[in-house]
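User: Hi! I'm working on a homework problem where we have to compare a predicted structure to a textbook description. Could you give me the structure for the chain below?
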Amino acid sequence: MTPPPTAAQRRVIDAADPVTGRLTGTEAQLAALVKRGLAFRHPRPPHDHFLTPAGHRIREAPAEEAVRVAPVAPAAADSGVFAARVGGEETTDTGPARLREVRGAWQGLLELRRMTSPDGATDRPCDWERKHLVRAAALALEAAGHRPATADGDGYRVRTTPQPEAVAVHGPDVTALRACAGTLEEAGWQVSEHTEPRSRARYLLASPRRV
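Assistant: Happy to help. Predicted structure tokens:
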């Protein structure tokens, strides 16, 4: 298990700007947080450091939960900022800890959008989302309160498609599907509704909006 942040690292995390997640600390402290996936260094001058979604979750969680929350998500530049539920998982815990994780991941992703967008906008997906389409769309849905499908139950399911910049979203019925469409559009995705030729089931195609 990944050990929790040290006391000094926890103080740096707790002192982060409550809105932007901007960090202040020694170079060694900041570098250690980056290495653990709890912070990232902004690529543009003055190269400030900011909390990743995992760092936001550490700050929001009680200190005694940090050991459990810390391993949930690696750095933003890695293969997944947050283990968003795409639908079909064996477990769909919706307890307070999961809700905090989802909220922290979404707020961290919005901050990542702001920091990596030339105009500081948060209304359209960032490069990380374009490289992790399924997880990005699933996070937007879960953060808005939609329920992912269990292995044998109803709910949304986000899946890859042959199109390089689009995901398919399946739902239990048209009403739920259109609610998902509204959420994704608000999150900066372009969404269209389609019908599968054989089953006649309705599904969504969603792709990140660029402008």
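For your comparison, note the following. The helical segments are 7-14, 27-35, 53-60, 66-69, 96-116, 127-131, 133-143, 174-186. Confidence is low (pLDDT under 50) at residues 63-82. Good luck with the assignment!
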